[in-house]
Amino acid sequence: MSKPRVAIFDFACCEGCQLQLVNLEEEILDLVNVVEPVEWREAMTESSPDYDIAIIEGSITRPQDEERLKAIRARAKVLIAMGACAAITGVNRLMNKHVEAGQAGPCVYGAAASQPHLQSGTARAAHEIVKVDYKIHGCPMDNREFSSILRSLLAGKTPFVPTYPVCVECKQKGNICRYEYNEVCLGPVIRAGCGAACPSGGFWCFGCRGYIDEPNVNAAFDVMDQYGKTIDDFKDRLELFAGREAENNAKNS
Does the pTM exceed 0.85? Predict the structure, then answer.
C-alpha cells in the first residue's frame, strides 16, 4: 500500500511552526516511514501537485494567496491548518484593527510596499476561505501535538484536541495561578493542549491556542472581580491573538 503523500505550504507567517517540525529531529524519520513528503519548501527542493494531505501555515492576506489556498484545497483530501496564524489568524489579525485596509504594506515597508509580494490586505484564517478538516493550535504549534494528530489521522482515528481550558493543565501541574501574581491570564477561556507552557514558565497565558469551543466568559469575569481586575484588562490581553474574532473562529472549529 502506498504511503499518503503530504505537502506543506506557507502563507503570511514567520514559519516558526515549520521549524517546530524540524525540531522533531529523529521522530521525523519515524513519520517519513508512514507518509511521503512531496512538497516542503523549508526542507526539500522538490514539489508536486499530487498530494493527499495538505498542511498550511500562515494567514491569508492577499488575493493571490486566497486563490492559491483554494487550489490547494481542491487537490487535498485532507487540509490541516497548522499554528495560530492558519487556525485563528494569529497576530496578523492585529492589522485588521489597527491599520486601514490595504495600508499595512506602506505602513511597514514604505515605498517598497508597491512590490506585489508586500501588498497585504485583510488577514484571515484558512477556514474563513475554505473548508479546514483539522487545526493544530498554538504559536508556535506543539510538535508533539502535530505528531499525535497526524498519526491519529493515518490510523483512521479522530485526533484528540482538548476542549477544556489551560487552567486545567495548570492545576494538573500544581502551578500557582498567575492572578496570585497580580497578572491577567487568559487561561480560563483558552484551549488547553500546550501543557500550560507559559504559566509553567512564569508568564501568563497569551491565548495563542484560541478560545475553547464554549468559553465560560462569565466565570472569567468573576475571576476578574475576585482579583480586582476589569473586563477591559481581560480584553487588552485578548487583543494579541484576535480577541472576539478568535472566539468566533473557535466556534467554527
Answer: yes
